[in-house]
Amino acid sequence: MARSVLVTGGNRGIGLAIARELAAAGDAVAVTYRSGEPPEGLFGVRCDVTSMSDVESAFDKIEAEQGPVEVLVANAGVTKDTLLAMMKEETFTDVIDANLTGAYRVAKRAIRPMMKLKRGRVILVSSVVALAGSAGQTNYAASKAGLIGFGRSMAREYGSRGITVNVVAPGFVDTDMTADLDVAAIIKNIPLGRQAAPGEIARVVRFLASDDASYITGAVIPVDGGLGMGH
Length: 231
Known about the structure:
Layout: E1 4-7, H1 13-24, E2 28-33, E3 43-46, H2 52-66, E4 71-74, H3 89-117, E5 120-125, H4 129-132, H5 138-158, E6 163-170, H6 183-187, H7 198-208, E7 220-223
Parallel strand pairs: 1-2, 1-4, 2-3, 4-5, 5-6, 6-7
Family: Belongs to the short-chain dehydrogenases/reductases (SDR) family.
Keywords: Oxidoreductase
Domain Ketoreductase: 3-176
């Protein structure tokens, strides 16, 4: 039976790959997006995860279209890279608000219906920099590290309700977000010697959302080509 799935920030990059992968598995997939047009073949809802009213409205529309969300993938995120000494406070707080507090908003809205169903999957998309760190990304790394503590606390709160909560930590993925980086320099530090394709992240999310992962919760799964190993 098709499950109701929501992927935030699902109109491009990793989010779109995840949405397509779960749709291919037979799920009914909705995506949120802030600008542009919704992806073809998916139920798109315009939503800014920094707004609780936007989140509430998006969930209302998704529930009316495909039922209560059973699989939530909190993927929406932004970067505003600056060295700390030159970073304005709003540059720090804006990234925390979108990446970490945004995940709180969608998870909070999703959790009660999941409790009623006595089942659910929550998958948070973090990053290799959450534990390894990255110069110029104190805001981004802090937001992505926060997702780990947030997700593990959720896993302890809701495991008895049949809800699993896991974190995927991608490395450098070939998307618009990494297009302006010095890829050659980064690849030198990756044991596998290349960037990931978005689909490689999506297939791990598909596994965590599946029945095969029913006894996995509170896990942080690196998909980083070995870049962050040891963390």
